Amino acid sequence: MMRGLILAGLGVAAVSVFFLLPDGFYLWAKVLHIVSVIAWMAAMLYLPRLFVYHAEAGPGSPQSETFKIMERRLLRAIMTPAMLSTWYFGLWMAWTGFGFMGGWLHAKIAAVVVLTGMHGYFAGAVRRFAEDREVRTSRHWRVLNEMPAVLMIVIVILVVIKPW
Predict the structure, then answer these.
(1) Per-state percent for the chain, helix, strand, coil, to nearest 5
(2) Which residue segment(s) compose the domain that 73 sits in?
(3) How many domains does the chain have?
(4) How many beta carbons lie within 10 A of that of residue 16, not counting itself?
(5) Best exposed site among 10, 81, 88, 163 by fewest CB in 10 Å?
(6) How far is CA 16 from the centre of its chain?
């Protein structure tokens, strides 16, 4: 509930700045984009770690039931809103600041599409764990736990270095 209010407050602030200071909105959009990316990445790195432990807990165990709550709340309250605001502000800046031009930008967007696909895969796993139908091992989740970090490194390199 509190996180939802914070995100709503950030949204109202962004819209207010857009209308009150349209020339200065780009920098605020960048700030909100970076904050959203940080929240999204934190959740993308934490959720598969929860899956590692959840896969090791027996279905129906008290630990499993606790993990179900943690996973659902992380996905709904942090990860998905952060992903949506990352896309919103990122696309706005790509259009406004770069006109969607530049090989580095296209590669970055492709990497973010892959990250979004992983987000969807993780969301499906949350549903399967909630229904006690997830069959993948903790080793599977340990491997996937590294993928968002690799994508994040690629994206940061593309944004900072702009190789093409």
Answers:
(1) 85, 0, 15
(2) 2-161
(3) 1
(4) 12
(5) 163
(6) 24
Question: Residue 93: CB partners within 8 Å, gap ≥ 6?
Answer: 26, 29, 30, 33
**Residues 79 and 44: beta-carbon distance below 8 Å:** yes
User: Torsion over CA of 38, 44, 50 and 52, rounded to 10 degrees?
Assistant: -140
Please say whether the dihedral angle defined by the alpha carbons of residues 67, 69, 75 and 77, taken in this order, is positive or negative: negative
- Per-residue pLDDT tens for 93-137? 999 988 999 999 999 999 999 999 999 999 999 999 999 999 999
Q: Residue 2 pLDDT > 70, yes or no?
A: no
Instruction: Determine the Cα–Cα distance for residues 140 and 66; give it in Å rounded to an integer.
Output: 21
Tell me the per-residue pLDDT of 69-84, one tens digit each, with 9 for 90 and over: 999 999 999 999 999 9
CA distance 15 to 17: 6
User: Given this model, what pLDDT does residue 16 score?
Assistant: 72
Q: Report the distance separating Cα 127 and Cα 121, nearest Å.
A: 10
